[in-house]
Design a protein that fits this description.
Elements: E1 2-6, E2 9-13, H1 20-30, E3 36-42, H2 47-60, E4 63-71, H3 73-79, E5 84-86, E6 96-99, H4 114-124, H5 131-138, E7 146-150, E8 162-165, H6 174-177
Parallel strand pairs: 2-3, 3-4, 4-5, 4-6
Antiparallel strand pairs: 1-2, 6-7, 7-8
Helix pairs in contact: 1-2, 2-3, 4-5
């Protein structure tokens, strides 16, 4: 991932390549004023790095913020935050965290890994993630499918700001075509710890 440091923030953006935990640890050691990891426009990547980085973030008591999209392994990094929130760094309707299962190189769902992933999500959501909703998203058969969590203020995504997409929908029509489960918003599911939108100085 690309790195930008503006203490107390460290911005991580782009593809999760596999060395993120080491990069973050080195940055925190060199810049002890870092308190917050801003995850910006990442479609994910290396699954193990997502877990490891999320666990390191929690261990160090760092906060996480969303700027734009954060999908797949990036979402595990986000869940690592001791506190977790949306930010004003990008328009709120372009800002979401998105979860799905674990997939092999050929795109097939790795069913054997789903119980561990589900347990990890529930643990790092501080026990708040709705198990029925998690069960749906970790078993999405298409790796292009996601459960998207937007801020509930974003219009057009139902009262809770959650979309469950199968991955076959036209990306421009997701708001119309994706299911909108009413099983709790991002706060109720422990995806974020507050709905207050964090301000990032420009």
């Amino acid at each position: 991932m690309d790195v930008e440091i503006r203490e107390p923030f460290i911005f991580l953006s782009g593809k999760v390549a596999g060395n993120e935990q080491r990069i973050l640890q080195a940055a925190v050691e060199e810049h002890p004023g870092i308190t917050t990891v801003v995850l910006k426009n990442s479609s994910g990547g290396d699954a193990r790095a997502g877990y490891a980085t999320g666990e390191y973030i929690r261990e160090k008591g760092l906060a996480t913020l969303l700027s734009g999209y954060c999908r797949s392994s990036c979402s595990r990094m986000f869940l690592g935050g001791k506190t977790r929130a949306y930010s004003d760094d990008q328009p709120l309707d372009k800002t979401a965290v998105a979860f799905h299962g674990n997939y092999a190189q050929d795109g097939s769902l790795q069913q054997v890994r789903m119980p561990a992933l589900k347990a990890w999500i529930i643990k790092y959501s501080d026990g708040k993630a709705n198990p029925e909703l998690v069960e749906q998203w970790v078993n999405l058969p298409n790796r292009n499918g996601f459960a998207y969590f937007y801020h509930p203020q974003v219009p057009g995504i139902g009262p809770e700001g959650v979309m469950l997409c199968q991955g076959s929908e036209d990306a421009k029509l997701r708001k119309e075509l994706c299911a909108k489960p009413q099983q709790g918003d991002a706060l109720a599911n422990g995806i974020v710890t507050t709905l207050e939108i964090a301000k990032i100085p420009r």
